[in-house]
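fold-stage: in
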Amino acid sequence: MENFTIHIFGYGETQINSNEFSKKIATTELTKVKPLVDAIWNKKPLDLETEETYHVIHIFNHNDIRFVSKDGFQLKAEEDLKPLIDDLILEMKNYVEKVTK
């Protein structure tokens, strides 16, 4: 999928906006969010002393990830995160198809 944005909100919802579909889903309904968030967290800059608590994580087209917190960070073009992002997109797409039938 090209041209998408995913927002993982700290209050418990995950949203996707793309040319295929747009939907906000309770994060507890999605099993692929936690592994992605953990992988993003593990890539934070070593000198950054922030808490794992986040306001929102923005993901723009695989290439730009923004961990928004008191002292957030940004990741660019992290190839090893793409499969985790794609897994989440597929899970969200399947969830939307399941609940709209």
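fold-stage: in (second)
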Amino acid sequence: MKNYLYILAVLTCTTACSGDSSEGSSNPVDPITGVKVQIETEIVTRSSATAKKVYANGDEMNVWAKTYGATTADDIVKNIKAVFNGGTWTLTPDVYLEASKVKNAFIYASYPYAADNSNTANNINIDVTKQTDILYSGSYVPVTVNTYTAKLKMKHALSLATFNIVKDGYSGEGRLQKLTLYGDSIYTKGVMKVDKGKVSGLEKGEVSSVFDKTITTSGWEQDLPRMWVIPLPFNTKATKAYLKTVIDGKEYVSMVPEVEMKIGYQYVFHLVLTRNGLEFIPDQTTSIALEEEADQMQPLNGHGILKLTHEGIGSFLSLYLLGDNVFGTVKWGDESQETYTDGLSHEYATTSQHPIMYETWNSIGFELRNLKDVKIIDISQYE
């Protein structure tokens, strides 16, 4: 069920000040004959504890009261801060409506509050390194002297990258300690338009979170590790992104499978941990609205290990794995490894022996397109 929180913020006015001050001001309406704008808020979510469900004492929001229904319209009152305490919102400064003067207002809001966002509803600064759920009100909510309660439905502006890991043949404890996303699709800072919730990335970087969870052979069904990310332009169909994972003190790097994120969604990535490494399961990536929470790992099929011994210098064209939704890891025998993709090649700097290992799932066969400098083919662990 959705968690609804309705909060009444009663506005009082003690002085009638000019509406032109950038430091916060009351609109020039008689507090005796005018009516006070009221606000009710609903956070639209049924998701995990990571996504915000209810407000807590001390929570703050930016609020904008516009003269007409556009984020570019003039402010009736500038620099409004809403503070939640004891079940009510207090807005400073106040907003009044009066039939003979200010008849209408168009209300927007965003959470959490930031002083540098007070002057604009179109370029709200976002910093996902803080790993804070960003909420926005969406399209304006009109209020009048007769219907002066703005019912704001607060929605999630970011996406949740969620990870479920299963171990298969891994003999360690499997303690997940840290996740880090980086690459051309990963932005740490951006700007948001409060009416659309659209966050556009401005600055690339790494997004990290620390964890303390034990990986099992069946994966997790609740309380999955996750990170808030800027959804635009998170598109690994066009650019690359990588997940750096620390498990039992060891670091693994895996390429994120193809995904194009949308705002207000969580994307559940499934990975498998073996004694040879950590790899995404591409065909098990799912996207669900932030109302959802539970997850369940699907069984893995067609696990196999292929080994080649290469002895040569220069470029080596990888073998081709047959099957649907084939995925896996290639260890090149020179201390480098990467996610398997069709057409993969590797450059060797020396003519020494290179023990190449393919760990794969869903493969039903393979084709070796280049036998040059291949000395040994071992299929004893490929079934």
